[in-house]
Amino acid sequence: MTSDLCHSWSNRAKEIAPLGFDKYFEHIILVEDTTEHKPAPAPMLEYLRRAGANPGNVVYVGDTVYDEQCATSAGVSFARAAWGSHQDIPNATYNLETPNDLLTLTTK
Question: Does residue 52 contact residue 72 with C-beta atoms inside 8 Å?
């Protein structure tokens, strides 16, 4: 394991694990995991690589135009989290008004 990779895992342990969110996700991509950052597609492409996921089966949920640009550039659908967004994002594939609206995506 390289020191950069150790540093990355160390940050995960310090920043993510205490919040309790890590148990809900198989893959967590942090800023130090890619050299390019949103709006570039690198973070989403890294997720797709790690997960072995097909871009056509992935929805990126975000609340900024930078999230939408990242998703679109990586070839995945984008869902605007309107409860956290104060930006108009006209190219969003889905517009979610509440977190409960995420459940509608699981039936598509």
Answer: no
- What is the value of pTM for the model shown? 0.81
- CA 77 to CA 56: how far, in whole Å? 7
Reading the block at residue 34, the tokens are 């890619």
Model confidence over 53-71: pLDDT tens digits?
Answer: 999 999 999 999 999 999 9
For the stretch 13-22, pLDDT in tens is: 677 778 887 7
User: Residues 101, 41, 107, CA angle at the centre, nearest 5°?
Assistant: 25
Tokens standing for residue 105:
């995506």
Residues pairing with 59 in the sheet: 77
Q: Sort residue 61 into left (φ over 0), alpha (ψ -120 to 50) or beta.
A: beta
Inter-residue contact 72 to 39 (CB < 8 Å): no
| Tokens, residue 16 | 């993510």
**Coil vs helix vs strand at 77:** strand
